[in-house]
Amino acid sequence: EVQLVESGGGLVQPGGSLRLSCAASGFTFSSYWMHWVRQGPGKGLVWVSRINSDGSTTGYADSVKGRFTISRDNAKNTLYLQMSGLRAEDTAVYYCARESKTGSDIDYWGQGTLVTVSS
Amino acid sequence: SVLTQPPSVSAAPGQKVAISCSGSSSNIGGNYVAWYQHLPGTAPKLLIYDNDKRPSGIPDRFSGSKSGTSGTLGITGLQTGDEGDYYCGTWDSSLSAVVFGGGTKLTVL
What is the pLDDT averaged over residues B18-42? Predict the structure, then answer.
């Protein structure tokens, strides 16, 4: 069974940093592209970032480019999102998600971890 | 949102609904559409991929279609357990980004 378990969320002050982790199990993690997607309070799903299977290629939404860094450790089956320069508008539930083998959709999602940016 | 969905739809149990998703040539027009179900307190779930395919375990009450720059999710035999938010998603070749619709809240009256 595919499982994606996020951790690392919490309360952080504006301008602060936080690192999210996503522990993957039930599939060959090193074979899949992975994504982070977020949902602000009362808002819809918004794509944040993606990384290819060996970590050599990454992509970011304009809203986080230069502030967030996605990475992965295939030996530990773990995906990361390093967030810095956090703003109030980054407050959201952050979901770790797996891209399907065909690359045309996201086929599994985690339960999410809440990040709150507030003073 | 880059993709446009109606904010809400509603119907009685047993009835059917259709949820639209409008985009452009850089996203839906040139790429596959997926649909996701997000029920309260749960992780989002893939309902439809490649415009009209259902993953294993998804009942055939759920269907998808695409025409030009728009996609549609159909749900028949509505159940109270279907209440939640539904999102369309695809790749946008101009933005080099995954894009989602704003979501549609389904109410089963």
Answer: 95
